[in-house]
């Protein structure tokens, strides 16, 4: 099951090379939906209240190096997988209705990217995780570089160099971890459970922690290492940027929970405040930038940076409340940012530009589009009643208990979110219709791609327990090692 | 008085015998002129190489001394010989329509086989004399091949440069070997190790000078910085099929003897040469990767990349462990596949476009010729070590070997080199998929066929879509991906090769 979920998108993507004519657009959609259905079945069959891995697959892969093909799902990854398949279905649908040039290669890359991301979420072997973490970059490199907009070659190079610098160091860190552990156990293994059972000495943890943190912070991106983000977000095709911001950024946050906290607890506690400071700086900086940018994509991009600051804050509060909130917020943010980008695509089509100053009045003849966007906007600014509110609330509770100062500064960010989210909505939807901007209702195909995402936002607002209940046990397990260190 | 004939193990020598016989047949067949000559010659070359490969595989699993211990046939030697033979077989179709070959296919291909013979012997060499003789047998035909494009000054320059630099390298090596002999009193590798240990000269200046000079000589051959200056020029000047052969096969054979000399013969002095070789590896990684940045000529780019890759591979020797040798063999096999695919695409584009080996030759290839663009893309990504390719698994092996051998810093050096390398590997990928097809400007002319011999163009149209090139290229690229996803067979193969030195490590 987990195998078919993981490989379906890539294999079906490969099949597009041999289908004739119209199948090119239908087949990838089928692939993405098949993965979605499998993910839903997986969530439905998921056992509550346990931190044990479920749906595990354990095969030998490179025995000489101790690398295993070890997949499994727990309460954190199961929702990341669901989020991935939901967003990819929307992105694939959107792409199918706006067919790109050379569609075969495009859809193959899109499918390969989904497999890469799902692999990172399923992997329970440290090296396999690193492999998928790097693998997902390749299709995104092509998707942005070959189908992107202006300045795409420089943007992709920047993205690759930034992210691979981080993730290659992570590769060394992973190998060093396994070998140092094998000195103690006598047998080399990259399995996460084996590694977390034998925690490294504090001295080795310190440098390996930063190798991993570099990879994850760049991927998010976090403040100071976000240099690749504006260019890549501006150059990428709309559906690609939707999944880039919706899912890929979460891989970094997920990596902290899955790898860093359980494997390097001493270093985590030691550098807690450094990461918290980066997170808070990201919240403030991202909000300020989102408020001043005039390019709509960058408004959404920098708002993501701020939101990921919140998620990092929740994780590094090292309290169950905070981390629960962070997991919920990871799903929430994915669910709001992807429709935001797709709607931005729709808006840009009508305005003929992505500049906020040249937009306006789009709600005039498009009430449905406006309503969809309004729901997304209110969720983004964490309106009470939305799941985002609950997520941010939990994160702040956790942080208040852990480090008050950071929590106080971060709360300001909540207010900022209202500023930039409403500004984006008003500038595009309200006011007068400028010349050359056409207020047109959302087309049926676009609606197909966007409306289900908005429905998910609403559904999650009604029942956030869906995630909190299933995530709790796994989050506690991830937090256990650093908590033990802190109380020591 | 009876004369006792020495025992000759014909089975063990059979690959060498097959190559020698094939070499003579190909040379003689080339003497006959005629329209079909090159097909006959190439067919014979392929048969020779295939037979050799078959005999090598037949001998797989053997571990025996041949010719009174001068040669050692084990899995390490066989695996490296197989790489050399595969590379030669891959290159034969590339030379088919090579302008440099003109009507001299017999000569070109027999030189190629002769060089392969040198490599097969070098991979087995277990004696200082055998080492030197087979190294020369490998090199001399290559000097000629580099200069075989008679009408191109660049090619002649490359041949001459390679001859001079190669001779300096050989002389240095020979001098070093003399010192080693002087210090240990023997020319056989195992006896050298015994000699060094029993004489207690592991740290003796005599041996250390010998080691230094021998390492320098071998570093010339595998193009490790700072002994690499010839590489980009020779790679660029030589006819591209020759460059492909040189880049891949020479490296495999030379690294094989590098391993054997240092780990079998000079094992007792390991503490002395390990740091020195580690420094050499690090310097190569830095110099190669930085040199490749901003190269517009694909052959120069691959030349510099080869220097960096040699630095990565050297890590396998530095750590002097079984994992190290395994990593080295795995990486060399992976390197062979990806480099051959890349060079084949360069060869095809060189004949199709007026840009030669300039990066403009591959611009827009993704949309226009996916069958060519994919192999080059895969090999660039694999050389950069991205996952899903053998390049990733190979780097993984090397880094793991480095960390295990307490050379973590060298693992980090590999990673930093990889980061730098992205800038130029991705530039090639970007050119193929993200740029439009380049328009020829003034001064860009289609290459003159047959090395510029008047009247030759009309008679021999370009066989651009030649299946003989395309099929092996696609196979090499497919193998790069397939072994990247399912590396087991290649890992087992490398593990066997690694085990053959297991006793001394």
Describe this structure in a few short sentences.
The complex is a heterodimer of chains A (488) and B (505). Helix content of chain A is 75%, strand content 3%.
Walk me through the topology.
The complex is a heterodimer of chains A (488) and B (505).
Chain A: H1 2-15, H2 23-44, E1 54-62, E2 67-73, H3 77-97, H4 103-122, H5 126-135, H6 137-147, H7 152-185, H8 192-197, H9 202-219, H10 229-235, H11 238-263, H12 265-270, H13 272-292, H14 296-316, H15 320-351, H16 367-380, H17 387-402, H18 404-429, H19 444-462, H20 465-487
Antiparallel strand pairs in A: 1-2
Chain B: H1 10-29, H2 37-58, E1 64-66, E2 71-73, H3 75-96, H4 105-124, H5 128-146, H6 153-184, H7 189-199, H8 205-221, H9 230-237, H10 240-265, H11 270-292, H12 298-318, H13 322-352, H14 365-368, H15 370-383, H16 390-404, H17 408-434, H18 456-459, H19 467-485, H20 488-499
Antiparallel strand pairs in B: 1-2
Core attributes:
heterodimer, A: 488 residues, mainly alpha, two-stranded antiparallel ribbon, 20 helices, B: 505 residues, 73% helix
- Report the sheet-strand fraction of chain A: under 5%
Secondary-structure class of chain B: mainly alpha
> How many distinct helices of chain B?
20
Q: How many strand units of chain A?
A: 2
Report the biggest beta sheet of chain A as strand number plus sense, adding barrel if it closes. 2 strands, antiparallel
- What is the 3D form of chain A? globular
Number of helices of chain A: 20
Give the N-terminus to C-terminus distance of chain A in angstroms. 42 Å
- Radius of gyration of chain A from CA coordinates: 21 Å
User: How do the SSEs of chain A run, as a string of H and E?
Assistant: HHEEHHHHHHHHHHHHHHHHHH
């Amino acid at each position: 099951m987990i195998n078919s979920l993981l490989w379906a998108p890539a294999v079906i993507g490969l099949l597009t090379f041999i289908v004739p004519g119209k199948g090119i657009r239908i087949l990838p959609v089928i692939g993405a939906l098949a993965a979605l259905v499998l993910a839903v079945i997986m969530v439905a069959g998921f056992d509550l209240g346990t931190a044990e891995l479920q749906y595990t697959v354990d095969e030998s892969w490179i025995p000489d190096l101790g690398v295993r093909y070890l997949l499994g799902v727990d309460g954190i990854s199961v929702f990341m997988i669901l989020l991935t398949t939901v967003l990819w279905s929307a992105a694939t649908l959107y792409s199918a209705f706006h067919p790109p040039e050379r569609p075969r290669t495009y859809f193959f890359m899109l499918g390969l990217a989904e497999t890469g991301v799902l692999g990172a979420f399923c992997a329970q072997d440290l090296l396999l995780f690193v492999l998928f973490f790097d693998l997902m970059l390749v299709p995104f490199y092509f998707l942005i570089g070959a189908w992107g907009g202006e300045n795409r070659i420089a943007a992709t190079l920047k993205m690759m160099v930034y992210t691979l610098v981080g993730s290659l160091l992570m590769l060394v860190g992973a190998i060093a971890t396994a070998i140092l552990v094998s000195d103690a156990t006598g047998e080399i293994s990259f399995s996460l459970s084996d590694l977390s059972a034998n925690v490294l000495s504090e001295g080795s943890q310190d440098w390996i922690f930063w190798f991993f943190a570099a990879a994850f912070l760049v991927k998010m991106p976090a403040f100071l290492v976000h240099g690749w983000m504006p260019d890549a977000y501006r150059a990428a095709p709309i559906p690609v940027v939707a999944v880039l911001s919706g899912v890929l950024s979460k891989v970094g946050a997920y990596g902290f929970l899955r790898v860093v906290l359980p494997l390097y607890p001493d270093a985590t506690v030691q550098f807690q405040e450094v990461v918290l400071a980066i997170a808070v700086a990201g919240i403030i900086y991202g909000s300020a930038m989102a408020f001043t940018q005039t390019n709509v994509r960058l408004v959404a991009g920098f708002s993501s940076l701020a939101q990921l600051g919140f998620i990092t804050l929740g994780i590094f509060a090292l309290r169950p409340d905070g981390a629960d909130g962070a997991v919920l917020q990871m799903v929430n943010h994915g669910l709001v940012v992807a429709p935001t980008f797709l709607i931005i695509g729709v808006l840009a089509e009508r305005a003929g530009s992505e500049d906020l100053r040249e937009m306006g009045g789009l709600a005039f003849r498009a009430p449905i589009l406006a309503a969809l966007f309004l729901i997304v906007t209110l969720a983004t600014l964490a309106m009470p009643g939305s799941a985002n509110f609950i997520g941010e609330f939990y994160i702040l509770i956790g942080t208040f208990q852990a480090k008050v100062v950071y929590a106080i500064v971060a709360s300001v960010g909540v207010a900022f979110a209202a500023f930039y989210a409403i500004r984006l909505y008003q500038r595009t939807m309200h006011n007068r219709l400028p010349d050359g901007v056409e207020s047109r209702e959302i087309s049926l195909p676009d609606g197909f791609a966007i409306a289900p995402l908005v429905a998910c936002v609403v559904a999650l607002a009604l029942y956030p327990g869906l995630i909190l209940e299933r995530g709790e046990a796994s989050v506690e397990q991830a937090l256990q090692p650093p908590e033990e260190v802190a109380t020591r | 008085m009876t004369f006792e004939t020495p025992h000759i193990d014909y089975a063990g020598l059979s690959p060498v015998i097959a190559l020698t016989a094939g070499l003579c047949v190909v040379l003689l067949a080339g003497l006959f002129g005629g329209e079909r000559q090159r097909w006959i010659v190439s067919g014979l070359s392929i048969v020779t190489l295939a037979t050799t490969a078959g005999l090598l595989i037949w001998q797989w699993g053997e571990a025996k001394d041949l010719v009174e211990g001068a040669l050692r046939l084990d899995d390490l030697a066989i695996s490296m010989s197989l790489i050399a033979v595969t590379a030669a077989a891959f290159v034969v179709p590339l030379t088919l329509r090579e302008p440099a070959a003109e009507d001299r296919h017999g000569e070109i291909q027999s030189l190629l086989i002769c060089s392969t013979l040198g490599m097969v012997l070098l991979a087995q060499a277990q004696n200082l004399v055998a080492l030197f003789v087979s190294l020369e047998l490998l090199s001399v035909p290559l000097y000629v091949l580099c200069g075989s494009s008679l009408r191109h000054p660049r090619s002649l320059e490359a041949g001459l440069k390679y001859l001079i630099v190669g001779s300096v390298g050989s002389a240095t090596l020979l001098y070093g070997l003399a010192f080693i002999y002087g210090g240990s009193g023997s020319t056989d590798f195992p006896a050298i190790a015994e000699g060094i240990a029993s004489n207690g000269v592991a740290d003796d200046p005599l041996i250390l000078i010998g080691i230094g000079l021998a390492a320098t000589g071998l570093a010339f051959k595998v193009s490790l910085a700072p002994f690499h200056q010839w590489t980009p020029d020779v790679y660029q000047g030589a006819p591209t099929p020759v460059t492909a052969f040189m880049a891949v096969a020479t490296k495999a054979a030379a690294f094989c003897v590098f391993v054997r000399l240092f780990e079998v013969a000079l094992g007792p002095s390991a503490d002395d040469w390990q740091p020195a070789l580690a420094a050499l590896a690090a310097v190569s990684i830095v110099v190669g990767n930085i040199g490749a940045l901003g190269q517009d000529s694909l052959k120069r780019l691959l030349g510099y990349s080869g220097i960096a890759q040699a630095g990565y591979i050297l890590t396998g020797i530095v750590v002097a462990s079984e994992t190290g040798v395994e990593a080295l063999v795995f990486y060399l096999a992976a390197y062979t596949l990806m480099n051959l695919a890349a060079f084949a695409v360069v060869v095809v584009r060189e004949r199709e476009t007026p840009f030669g080996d300039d990066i403009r030759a591959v611009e827009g290839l993704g949309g226009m010729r996916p069958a060519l663009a994919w192999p080059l893309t895969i090999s660039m990504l694999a050389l950069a070590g991205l996952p899903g390719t053998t390049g990733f698994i190979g780097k993984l092996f090397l880094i793991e070997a480095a960390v295990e051998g307490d050379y973590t810093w060298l693992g980090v050096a590999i990673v930093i080199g990889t980061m730098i390398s992205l800038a130029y590997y991705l530039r090639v990928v970007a050119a193929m998929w993200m740029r439009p097809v380049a328009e020829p400007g003034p001064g860009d002319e289609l290459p003159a066929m047959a090395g510029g011999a008047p009247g030759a163009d009309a008679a021999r149209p370009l066989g651009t879509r030649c299946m003989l090139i395309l099929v092996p290229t696609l196979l090499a690229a497919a193998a790069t991906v397939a072994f990247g996803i399912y590396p087991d067979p290649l890992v087992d193969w490398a593990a066997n090769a690694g085990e053959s030195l297991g006793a001394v490590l």
